[in-house]
Amino acid sequence: MDNQQDRASWRGQLTLRGVIIGCIGCVIITASSAYTALKLGALPWPIVFAAIVSLFFLKLVSKGKTSLNEANVTHTIMSAGAMVAGGLAFTIPGAWMLGLGDQVSFGEVLIVALAGTGLGLVATAIIHRHFIIDTDLEFPMGASAAETLRATEAGGKTGKRLFTSMGIAGVYAVLRDAFGVLPQMLAQLAIPGVTFGIYNSPMMICVGFLVGGVAVIWWFAGAVLANFGIIVGGSAAGLWTADAAQGIVKSLGMGLMMGSGLAVVLKDILPQVASIARGVKSDASSQDGTQSLVTGSVRTDAGTFAVILAAIVLLICMGLGLGPIEAIVVVLLTFVTTAMSAQSCGQTGIDPMEIFGLIVLLIVAAFSDVQQVQLFFIAGIVAVACGLAGDVMNDFKAGHILGTNARAQWIGQAIGGILGAIVAAAVMMTLYQAYGADAFGPGKAFVSAQASVVATMVSGIPSVSAFVIGLVAGIALYWAGLPAMMLGLGVYLPFYMSFTASLGALLAWIMKRVRASKNASLPEAERAAKEADAQEAGLVVASGMLGGESIVGVIIALISVVAGLAA
User: Fold this and answer.
1) In this structure, are residues 223 and 493 in contact, taking their beta carbons and an 8 Å threshold?
2) Vertex 362: Cα angle to 479 and 360 (nearest 5)
3) Within 13 A of 358's CA, how many CA atoms are on the CB side?
4) What is the per-residue burial (b if ≥16 Cβ within 10 Å, else e) of 457-468?
5) Range of lowest pLDDT (165-179, 361-375, 397-411, 431-445)
């Protein structure tokens, strides 16, 4: 494909009507996401919801003359701002909780949002090929969006499976979240220091179902090690208190994930620098949209990225008061953490963006005497970048499945991300001005759970030795070909999340064994066909469950925003 054909391809998918529809949806979803993240301490992925809404309105305005690729690019724009809002909501309110509200202005929050968005966009353009093409990770939310678009377009058996499962999960979520008929947790046990139970969430079960296999085994192993080895076992042995054990666990988990992220960059990303440099030297243009996502020329892309990064460093220094060394360190570490975010989203569908913000915050605090409020700005930049990276990579996965031009998606993500940064910053500061600092924190009107954790960690890493052990172990495990990121997630996340995901993986294993036993006597060709149909059905139903709960989460958020403004 030459450059003229390539331009025609992506411009046919990134349309004016798609941009307009995407931007309107982006404003609404970003505002609702900011409110939800602050109010509920959680943020459902809006990708599937945005995909359905995009296809519906495109068909409406074009009288049915649209394509799945145009809808995919449109929903990329629409969903981009949600995770930018999450990155801000999961970090910045921590400064308000510590009484630093008078040191946080709209301009500074906007700079944090724009800097994180810019870093996320540059990083994902660079790592796109590795995570989407070379490693072909699952990215369950992106795959769910692709399956939803296909089913919406095609209908038939696939459509019935998908929308039936979406409806069941949606009704379930309404009964649980809107009416309180169903509990949030099942089978809870009072174990000191351990949140034991089953998260009553079809989405979490389906994440484990889709990921399955060895990855979930390591995930669950990390949870068992942290909760029953370090917290329960260590406390019972008198090595430390339960509170101290939780600090050790958090530090170890962050170290494992940081080590895994560093290893990804050192082992998988840096070796590609040579090929990228050769492309820059020859001014090679991308033939398949996987090497140059911005301009079509690797050399021009490299120059564009250099200018963007220099501008971000300058913006951080002048707008947030950080020194040039600190700003450069933040930028460099953000590239590491976006790779970690991509790895996590690709394997689990979970993007612990505030964890990555905490990691960089603590590293900068270890060598630089920056002000407390600046630490929150650092965490916000990283969290926004990682949140956007998770959304971008899921969108890229959907595009890879559907054959969407990656450049069109990246440009769409840039439009939605920048618009989302402005909207998210405005909503955050509006809520702060309306309700005051006393409305944010555990037990308050806006629980801001993640930001509360950031606030408590600003004083430093609870256990430096555990963090260092995790860092070294994360690098070594990944280099040995073992899923260190999954182990780290299991160590860091609450036990109930890991346990619930493992139940989903166990369900997938049982169903596979039952099918194998049932079809054992069939001829090989017929057995293979039935297995393929069953796998497709499982993917579609699980995707529907993911989509149903996430769609209802966004709708409930929209209702909450309207109700909150009315009050």
Assistant:
1) yes
2) 55
3) 28
4) bbeebbbeebbe
5) 431-445
Nearest to 348 by CA among 165, 504, 470: 504
Q: Are 52 and 148 within 8 A, CB to CB?
A: yes
At position 85, the amino acid (one-letter code) is A
Query: DSSP readout, 143-197?
Result: HHHHHHHHHHHH-HHHHHHHHHHHHHHHHHHIIIIIS--S-SEEEEEEETTEEEE
Contact 474, 262 (CB under 8 A): yes
Alpha-carbon 369 to chain mean position: 30
The amino acid sitting at 361 is L
Query: CA–CA separation, 211 vs 166, rounded Å?
Result: 19
Minimal CA–CA distance to 79: which of 563, 329, 493, 416? 416
d(CA 519, CA 531): 9
Region for residue 64 given its phi and psi (left: phi exceeds 0; alpha: psi -120 to 50; beta: otherwise): left
Tokens representing 385 are 């970048």
The residue type found at 563 is A
3-state secondary structure at position 335: helix
Backbone angles phi, psi at 565, to 5 degrees: -70, -35
- At residue 40 the predicted structure's pLDDT band, cuts being 50, 70 and 90, is low
Print the domain residue range for 63: 3-566
Q: What phi and psi values does residue 297 have, to the nearest 5 degrees? A: -125, 125
Place of tokens 């969108």: 395
Closest CA to 358 of 333, 335, 392: 333
Residue 269 CA from chain centroid, whole number: 20
CA distances from residue 303 to 118, 269, 297, 445 in whole angstroms, order as listed: 15, 19, 10, 46
- Which residues, in sequence order, are CB contacts of 454 under 8 Å at separation 6+? 90, 91, 94, 354, 357, 358, 361, 376, 379
What pLDDT, on a 0 to 100 scale, did the predictor assign at position 159? 66
CB-based burial of residue 566 (10 Å sphere; 0-12 exposed, 13-18 middle, 19+ buried)? exposed
Count of domains observed in the chain: 1
Length of the chain: 567
H helix runs in 349-371, sequence order: 353-367
Q: What are phi and psi of 92, to 5 degrees?
A: -60, -40
| Strands 185-191 and 194-199, sheet pairing | antiparallel
Task: Say how far residue 324 (Cα) sits from the centre of its chain.
Answer: 29
Number of neighbouring beta carbons within 10 Å of residue 46: 32
Q: What percent of the chain has pLDDT over 70?
A: 87
Say how far apart CA 32 and CA 413 lie, in whole Å.
18
* pTM for the structure as a whole: 0.76
Asked if 406 and 290 count as a contact pair (C-beta separation under 8 A), the reply is yes
| C-beta atoms surrounding 238 within 10 Å | 7
